[in-house]
Design goal:
Elements lengths: L1 E2 L2 E2 L2 E6 L5 E4 L5 E6 L4 H10 L1 H18 L2 E3 L2 E7 L4 E3 L2 E4 L2 H10 L2 H12 L9 E5 L6 E4 L4 E5 L7 H13 L8 H10 L3 H8 L2
Parallel strand pairs: 3-5, 7-9, 10-12
Antiparallel strand pairs: 1-2, 4-5, 6-7, 8-9, 11-12
C-alpha cells in the first residue's frame, strides 16, 4: 500500500471478531484485523474507503519517528552535544543521547502542563473536581475521563510549543461541557482558544 508516495507493508490477520481494526505498529506497518470470513475483495475495498484515516495514522507515526531523531523542547529545536549529565544552555542540549534527553523531558513534563492548565481553569464555569495525569499515548494527545475524574495529557506534548499544549488542554476541558465533537463542542473550544485550528494543523489532530 502506498501512502504519500511511500510504500508500507500491510499485514492482514483474520480473527474471531465482529469488527475491523486498523493500526500502525512501531515499524510503520499497517496491521489490519478482520473477521475470519472477510474476502480479499472486501479487505481491499475497506482499505480504499478508510484511506484518509490510515493516512492520518501513518502521518502521526512518521511525526513521532522524526521527533526521536531530534530534540525539541516547547517547540524549540536544540543541537545535541554528548555529555554525562542532561542540561540545556542557549540552543544546545547536553546529555548521554538524544533518546535519553527526550525521555527526561517527557518524564518531567507534568509541572509545565499544570502551569498551563491553571491559566485556563478559571475561564470555564462549573468544572468538576479532576486530576491531571500524564502518560505516553500512541494515538491521542489528550483524554477526558469523567468516570475517573481525570484529564490525561500525552507526555510527547512537551516537544511542542505552548500553542499546541494550550489547545489540547482547552480541548479536554471543553469535554466537561460537551462529551462529543459536536458543533457546540467546537464553539466552546473556539470561545476559549480562538486559534485552535492552527494548533490542530500543527499536531495533525
Amino acid at each position: 500500500m502506498y501512502i504519500n508516495n511511500e510504500y508500507i507493508d500491510v499485514i492482514i490477520t483474520k480473527k474471531r471478531i465482529k469488527n475491523i481494526y486498523f493500526r500502525i505498529d512501531d515499524k510503520g506497518r499497517l496491521l489490519v484485523n478482520v473477521p475470519i470470513f472477510t474476502s480479499n475483495y472486501e479487505i481491499s475495498k475497506l482499505l480504499d474507503n478508510n484511506y484518509k484515516s490510515i493516512e492520518n495514522m501513518y502521518n502521526k507515526y512518521k511525526l513521532k519517528e522524526k521527533h526521536k531523531e531530534e530534540i525539541r523542547y516547547l517547540g524549540k529545536e536544540y543541537i545535541f552535544v554528548e555529555n554525562n549529565k542532561i542540561l540545556f544552555k542557549d540552543n544546545i542540549a547536553y546529555g548521554p543521547s538524544i533518546e535519553a534527553i527526550n525521555t527526561y523531558l517527557e518524564k518531567n513534563c507534568k509541572e509545565i502542563f499544570n502551569k498551563r492548565l491553571e491559566l485556563y481553569i478559571n475561564d470555564f464555569d462549573d468544572l468538576p473536581y479532576f486530576r491531571l495525569r500524564v502518560r505516553k499515548m500512541k494515538t491521542r494527545w489528550g483524554v477526558n475521563n469523567r468516570k475517573s475524574e481525570t484529564i490525561t495529557l500525552n507526555t510527547e506534548l512537551i516537544h511542542y510549543d505552548y500553542m499546541c499544549i494550550d489547545y489540547v488542554i482547552v480541548h479536554e476541558l471543553s469535554h466537561f461541557e460537551h462529551m462529543d465533537h459536536s458543533k457546540a463542542f467546537w464553539d466552546c473550544v473556539s470561545k476559549h482558544y480562538p486559534n485552535y485550528k492552527i494548533a490542530r494543523k500543527e499536531l495533525k489532530y
